[in-house]
Amino acid sequence: VVSALKNGRSGIVYDEQRKNLGFKSPLTSKINGFAPKNLGLSKKAMRTMCEPALFSFAAARDAVKDSRLPQDLIQSDRCGIIFGNDSTIKAGVESIEIAKKYKETHYIGSGYIFKTMNSTVTMNLAALFKTRGANWTISAACASGAHVIGQALMMIRSGYQDIVIAGGAQETNWMSMASFDSLNAFSSRTDEPKKASRPFDKDRNGLVPGGGAACVIIEDLDHAVSRGADIYCIIDGYGFSSGIGKNLSEPNPKGSVKAMENALKDAGIGPEKIDYINAHATSTLTGDLAEAIAINKVFGSVTPVSSTKSMTGHECWMSGTSEVIYTILMAQDKFIAPNINFLSLSDNCPQINVIHTAKEAQIDFAISNSFGFGGTNAAIVLNFNTI
Which pLDDT tens digit goes with each residue over 354-380? Predict the structure, then answer.
């Protein structure tokens, strides 16, 4: 992942299946090599797990292994699981097709009720990891994965939990993106898939969907230090707001400004302390403009900005978590990932410092933005200075 970020390597491809199904934009970010059968799960467990749950188990398993958390802590009431997820479309479609085919609900089977619920990820993970603390799902559109991290922070600060297994999931099948495609929100640059996602660029014409799952272990600092855990960053601040534009899909810069200001206030630092902004920017005309206006208002025109969605596509419900991870990787390796495909800002866009080629950098403080449909906004301040 570090190599891909540093070298500006795009994972976006042209999907023939989507083209044959009548998608206006058959572009997608592809996950290679994922095989559920290799996860070591029992047939019984897999009967209740849809695509987002399977992705999430793989991510959570790796995160838990890396954290070296002992089983007695994981299985205590001081450890919880919170994930962001806002759809399980494929499982719903499959259950309907079975009912239509056999004309009897018996053939759907009991597993599909658990597959089709938005909370499918957390209910399955809690069962598999045998946790006894927090166990719920946050559904907040494309800010879901960021709100999860913010809520985990709040719960640990308030003493409700010592550890939260936190993450986000996004299904990648064509069914989950069919209605999204009808919004005309996807890029039409189908002849150049790798150049289709171009956040902030004047020639951007839509986003490219992606997905998968991402997971982090959030732990009380003293608790982590006492057990000798590897600490990658400190979550210093969380800001949230609601601010809708003219319709459910249009953002309002005022809401984005408020989320970032709240995150900085929570962290107890000023905007001048931020060394890097991982922008939400998805490559849409209105969304990128609104965020640029907000960034310029809060940070001015100097603070380095890039959107990793230029390479990954828009990972939707998981992006708030995955982009925190990407930012951590940048800070560890002392670089800022490029906003690939960026040539110049549109004429109506205020000046911001978009980093279009990888840049060596010392990142002491960073902020990661996540803004979703319906005006839900989240910003996370990461501290690498006091690790």
Answer: 999 999 999 999 999 999 999 999 999
Helix (H) or strand (E) holding 106: none
Residues 164, 126: Cα–Cα separation, whole Å: 11
Structural domain containing residue 136:
31-172+210-231
Q: Which helix (H) or strand (E) holds 317?
A: none
Q: Is residue 22 part of a domain?
A: no
Angle at 239 between CA 233 and CA 244, to 5 degrees: 140
- Asked if residue 46 is part of any domain, the answer here is yes
Which pLDDT does position 245 carry in this prediction?
Answer: 86
Residue 135 inside a domain? The answer is yes
CA nearest neighbour of 317 among 124, 85, 127: 85
Q: What is the pLDDT of residue 331?
A: 99
Q: Which phi and psi (to 5°) does residue 340 adopt?
A: -65, 160
CATH of the domain at 36: 3.40.47.10
- Which of 202, 205, 213 lies closest to 165 in space, CA to CA? 213
What is the set of active-site residues? 142, 280, 314
In a domain, 199, yes or no: no
Residue range 198-246, pLDDT digits in tens = 999 999 999 999 999 999 999 999 999 999 999 999 999 999 999 988 8
As a whole number of angstroms, the distance between CA 359 and CA 5 comes to 11
pTM over 0.90: yes
Joined together, the tokens standing for residue 104 give 């009897």
Burial of 229 (0-12, 13-18, 19+ CB in 10 A): middle
Total count of domains within the chain = 1
